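#struct-help
A.M.: can someone run this one for me? Single chain, 165 residues.
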Amino acid sequence: MSTMNAITVNIGGDAPAVRPFALMRGRVLPALERKRGDLDAMYAPVMGRPEVDPVRLMAVTAHQIMQRLPDRACAEACLYDARWRLALGDITDFHPTTLVNFRNRLAESGKARFALETCRDAISATRTESALFSALSASISFIASIKACPFPHSSRSMSDSMAEA
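D.P.: on it. C-alpha cells below:
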C-alpha cells in the first residue's frame, strides 16, 4: 500500500498575485453567505437542490467575471489552481455547464443583478482592487442593458425569437 505525504503551501494574502483571491475569500464569500436565503430561494425545496452550493457557484461566477475566463477554464481553475482554492475553499468539481445552468437560473429568477451587486459592494468596501470593482460594475451594467434581449434561458426558444425579428 502506498502513502503520499500531503504538501501544504501557505500563500500570503498580501502578495499582489494573490490579493484578488484573498479578497474573494475574506470579503465576497462572507457577503454571499449572508444572502444565502435569497440564493436558496431559486431552488425548489424538494428535488431542486443543486449538487454544488449556490453561494459557491455565485462566488465562482463573480470570480470568473473578474478573471475573464470561459466556463471550461473556470471549472478547471476551481479544481487545479491553488489561488482559486484559496479564494473559494473546498468546492466539488463540476462540469462547465453547471455554470451555464446556474447563470440561467439567476436570470430566470431575476437575481443576477442582486448577486453581482452583493459581490461588488463587498469589494467596494476595500477599494483596493479597482480593476475587480470595475469588472463587476461593468457586468452589472451589461445585465441591466440586456433584460429586454431574448436569450436561450428564456421560456421561448432561440428560433422563436429569431422568427419574430
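A.M.: thanks! The CA atoms of residues 20 and 104 lie 26 Å apart.
D.P.: also worth noting: The chain has one domain: 19-164.
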